[in-house]
UniProtKB/TrEMBL annotation:
Pfam families: Glyco_hydro_3, Glyco_hydro_3_C. Residues 399-577 form the Glycoside hydrolase family 3 C-terminal domain. InterPro entries: BXL, GH, Glyco_hydro_3_C, Glyco_hydro_3_C_sf, Glyco_hydro_3_N, Glyco_hydro_3_N_sf. It comes from Monosiga brevicollis. GO terms for molecular function: alpha-L-arabinofuranosidase activity; xylan 1,4-beta-xylosidase activity. The keyword Ribonucleoprotein does not apply. Residues 155-358 form the Glycoside hydrolase family 3 N-terminal domain. This is Fibronectin type III-like domain-containing protein. GO terms for biological process: arabinan catabolic process; xylan catabolic process. Keywords: Glycosidase, Hydrolase, Signal.
Length: 614
């Protein structure tokens, strides 16, 4: 373990300082939610002005220095990273223990698959396991998995869950959210929060950061990007669609963190928006911290042109209890300038310190550790047999059998299967986005593909394979090869769909159609005349009108994650007992749910292919 982990010594210094402040009682009764105002004032009065911006900055704040900057070594205040992603598993490095055993965080199905499960207990269990693993990996010194973040030591507050509404199938981040229903997303946010923050009476296990507030679901469409998009939203849509999930996660889940988004709402960038104060803190009694999305404070001046400079942007964000933490470089470089120029007050800065340091108390970071169970979570608690079994169960529950004509499924054990398509040997494409390190060698080799899982059930001789096409490019020779493989088999299984090159953060789709090459492949295989099954990998829905008519069976697999291959193979072979173009008519930047044919299943006025909850 790294030498930076000599916290008790540092914390002792902090206590010693605090003990001489008025209001200090005893070191082990800093109870949750109730850090006495006197103590907090004492602590804040110990911090020099120039030490404040680093405490209010996530990751390395664009400074290029390794590690998070939240330390004030002079008074024993240790570093703390305010930004760690955990959308469907801790997004950290693996860690080797003293025996040489490597522990990698459990990687669950993408949240869209959790929507498919309809299992609200699974949402709680997902949060709980991520919370336990966050503690264990943090204690062991794991660092963030993404290189662009500077790979700081992870913190205990996670930038998850994502509970935005899947407003449009074109949105690039549909895989990150359970779905289009405000109630379901609220249940997801609430249960994930209760699981992750833990059920200790005194301390928080870890902290959620509900994202992205507010009315966020456009990456790059209609000439706008998420960094300059001004969402015009009626009060009706805010209250009926965009807010309910956040409200439930805050008021019932007791979420301790919220992230403000890149876009503006009705002319005001969300991180500078008074709604953070009036709705979140005053109306819903939110008592946690607000972090900006990475670079969102920069956007206030640089892209929205809402203020003329970084100093004014910093102040617009931090003023009046709005945005406490900047994931970016603006607070670090320009917050104190903003204060000295009179755009906001030092009291605003201290208020943000209060909101954030309070959480570090509630996490038990300043109390004696010996009686805190969350300080004694061993690495062996990471990726346990039990969490793997839970992961497998949730993955199986997330498979959706959309269609099964002529009982083509399940495949009998003596079936000769032609496994065809760009996702037949998917590994990386199956696990989606926001990934921690999955395999000890930092690749995707340990992810079992649908092909390998099917072979292990039916045997090598029973499964023949041809790629047929890539996701978007194809050649006649590969399609011909796939046709001959299908001709020689009893059943064709087509593994189709899309990937991160087509739907991703910063990248909305322009069409919901299955890529043309895959239509061509499917048509060629249907023409062979064998029973044909389609398995789809995707986050946002795909238009497959022709395939729906011609295929015997269709399985929707989402981005099923680490155990996706096994879950797909078990679903095909009947071992899964846990089953459960409108797009051109409205433009992407129109936030009204009732426009045109209507958004999401709640407002859609036409006939549906498959009803919501199918
Ligand atoms: C934080 O720690 C680093 C490395 O120990 C040190 O160089 C730096 O001065 C510390 N920052 C503060 C504000 O104490
Ligand atoms: C739902 O998830 C929970 C928690 O993982 C699990 O115990 C349960 O078996 C799952 N399935 C159903 C149908 O509840
Ligand atoms: C929305 O509600 C707020 C708060 O009640 C009000 O100030 C604002 O005028 C309303 N906006 C519209 C367009 O009605
Ligand atoms: C920890 O618990 C033990 C047993 O209840 C108690 O004797 C000890 O004082 C506690 N330590 C602290 C620092 O509270
Ligand atoms: C986990 O499962 C493996 C194989 O199923 C078994 O060998 C091992 O003993 C189990 N570990 C624990 C801690 O139960
Ligand atoms: C996929 O693309 C690569 C690179 O262009 C090409 O070499 C390969 O033949 C393609 N495979 C199929 C199945 O079309
Ligand atoms: C799309 O919708 C927005 C918001 O209602 C509107 O301002 C814009 O003019 C629309 N664009 C087109 C091409 O209809
Ligand atoms: C409804 O669906 C029909 C065909 O199913 C289509 O012709 C029509 O344009 C659609 N209209 C609207 C408003 O959704």
């Amino acid at each position: 373990m790294a030498s930076q982990w000599r916290w008790p010594a540092r914390v002792a210094v902090l206590w010693a300082l605090l003990a001489h402040q008025p209001g200090w009682r005893s070191p082990h009764c800093l109870t949750m939610f109730r850090v006495p105002i006197g103590w907090m004032q004492s602590l804040i009065s110990l911090i020099h002005d120039d030490e404040k911006p680093p405490l209010l900055t996530a990751r390395e704040g664009g400074g290029g220095s390794p590690g998070p900057p939240g330390n004030v070594s002079r008074i024993g205040l240790p570093e703390y990273d305010w930004g760690m992603n955990a959308i469907h598993g801790v997004q950290s490095s693996c860690i080797k223990d003293d025996d040489g055993t490597v522990y990698c965080p459990t990687s669950f199905p993408n949240p869209v698959n959790y929507g498919f499960t309809w299992n609200y207990s699974a949402y709680l269990e997902l949060g709980r396991i991520i919370g336990v693993e966050t503690r264990a990996l943090w204690l062991a010194g794991a660092v963030e998995a993404s290189t662009w973040s500077g790979r700081p030591h992870i913190g205990l507050d996670t930038w998850s869950p994502n509970i935005n509404i899947a407003r449009s199938p074109l949105w690039g981040r549909n895989q990150e959210v359970p779905g289009e229903d405000p109630f379901m997303n609220g249940q997801f946010g609430k249960a994930y929060t209760l699981g992750l923050q833990g059920d200790d009476d005194t301390y928080l296990q870890a902290i959620v950061t509900l994202k992205h507030w507010d009315a966020y679901s456009l990456e790059d469409s209609d000439g706008a990007t998420r960094h300059n998009f001004n969402a015009i939203v009626s009060n009706f849509s805010l209250m009926d669609t965009y807010w309910p999930a956040f409200r439930v996660a805050v008021t019932e889940g007791k979420a301790k963190g919220v992230m403000c988004s890149y876009n503006a709402v009705n002319g005001i960038p969300t991180c500078a928006h008074p709604l953070l104060r009036t709705v979140l803190r005053d109306l819903w009694k939110f008592d946690g911290y607000v972090s900006s999305d990475t670079g969102a404070v920069e956007d206030i001046s640089d892209n929205h042109k809402y203020t003329p400079s970084w100093a004014t942007a910093a102040c617009a964000a931090i003023r009046d209890g709005q945005t406490d933490i900047d994931s970016g470089a603006v607070y670090m470089k320009s917050l104190l300038q903003g204060v000295s120029e009179g755009h906001c007050r030092m009291e605003d800065v201290d208020n943000a310190l209060r909101n954030t340091l309070r959480l570090r108390f509630e996490l038990g970071l300043f109390d004696p550790v010996e009686n805190q169970s969350y300080w004694h979570v061993p690495l062996a608690a990471v990726n346990t047999n039990a969490s793997r079994a839970t992961n497998m169960l949730h993955t199986l529950e997330s498979m959706v059998l959309l269609q099964n004509k002529n009982n083509v499924l399940p495949l009998a054990s003596n079936t000769k299967v032609a496994l065809i398509g760009p996702h037949a040997k998917a590994q990386e494409d199956m696990v989606g986005n926001y990934l921690g390190q999955l395999c000890p060698d930092n690749n995707f080799d340990c992810v079992v593909s649908p092909h390998d899982a099917l072979v292990s059930i039916l045997g090598t001789d029973a499964v023949t394979y041809a790629p047929g096409t890539n996701v978007t490019t194809c050649s006649q020779s590969h399609i011909d090869e796939a046709v001959s493989v299908a001709t020689a088999a009893d059943v064709a299984v087509l593994m189709l769909g899309i990937d991160e090159s087509i739907e991703a953060e910063s990248n909305d789709r322009k069409s919901i159609d299955l890529p043309e090459c895959q239509h061509q492949l499917a048509s060629a295989i249907f023409a062979v005349g064998k029973p044909t099954v389609i398995v789809l990998l995707n986050g946002g829905m795909l238009a497959i009108e022709n395939e729906k008519q011609q295929a015997d069976a269709i399985i929707e697999a989402g981005y099923p994650g680490f155990y996706g291959g096994t879950a797909i193979a078990q679903t095909l072979t009947g071992q899964n007992e846990h089953l459960g173009d409108y797009i051109n008519w409205i433009n992407m930047s129109d936030m009204e749910m009732t426009s045109g044919p209507g958004r999401t299943y709640r407002y859609y006025k036409n006939e549906t292919l498959w009803a919501f909850h199918f």
